[in-house]
Amino acid sequence: MAYAPSALALVPFVSVENMLRLVNTVGVETFLTELAGFIEDDFRRWPLFDKTPRVASHSREGVIELMPTADDVSYGFKYVNGHPKNTRTGRQTVTAFGVMAEVETGYPVLITEMTLLTALRTAAMSAVAAKYLAPAEARSMALIGNGAQSEFQALAFKTLIGVDRLRLYDIDHSASLRCARNLSGFGFDVTVCTSPEAAVEGVEIITTATADKQFATILTDNMVASGQHINAVGGDCPGKTELHRDILLRSDIFVEYTPQTRIEGEIQQLRPTHPVTELWQVIAGEAPGRTSAGQTTLFDSVGFAVEDFSALRYVKSLIGRVPAYEMLDLLADPDDPRDLFGMLLRARVELKDLAS
After folding, report:
1. Which of 18, 100, 213, 309 has the largest count of CB atoms under 10 Å?
2. Do both 271 and 316 map to the same domain?
3. Residues of the chain with confidence (pLDDT) below 50
């Protein structure tokens, strides 16, 4: 066929292969640092974003979600699923892709894989929160749940706030061994523990990142000491929690977007009026974060669309620097914008000419 896409038809696409190239070319630590900077910048202008709880379709096996947001220039959304049983058939628990578009025209300007990118932005978000909420100069962290997110969390905490001592625990001991092996070249002192109680003993930060879709008690009240910071990553949908309610009642709780976290986060266990602070207020200097050494802080992380917007915005900035993308012929662009059918007819004629 003689058809050739115009410039308006083409959209940059970052495949998994190119995302791997992008991250490794930039360097994973640099990628996490720069991504965290984009997140902080967007949280400082939080009131400018359209915000809504993610649109979720729940089933017995998992959840499929759309996460949209926009400022006055760009619109972004992420498609993401969460299916804890997927690992039984060799699949990822979480997969995702994302789109960024111009508000002015509605035309997409980026399509990208977001399975890897979500892991990186979740870790960067955790470390950004810890920057404001963790004990000063914290160096030690327990990682409970050593699945696909664990190494990303560890690297983000080391890169952004200096954590270099890790205590790992997972009900699957081989997962902890894999995590320790993957992190062996990154300057960590790693201890693999045989119980969650052993993992949290004496650390300054506790990160929980388990996958089971159920009300669970990964941490009981007696396991958490005064002054520790808890980064609760795994509770991210209705009916799924990781912390005993008593921990919440004695912690200062920080969230991303309160209406969504009330439904999906650890605070779904509390009354709807229980006080929480949105993290953007802390980053923007409108509310205090950690105020004392003895304060127990909790980042009730469920993931919010503004973080994905930041990640899309960051990747878009990178593709001009690193040739790790391809152009997709995605948008029909007829010679006359009102004559889309004519474009189809011309293609039919060209096909007949090729066949004859």
Report:
1. 309
2. no
3. none
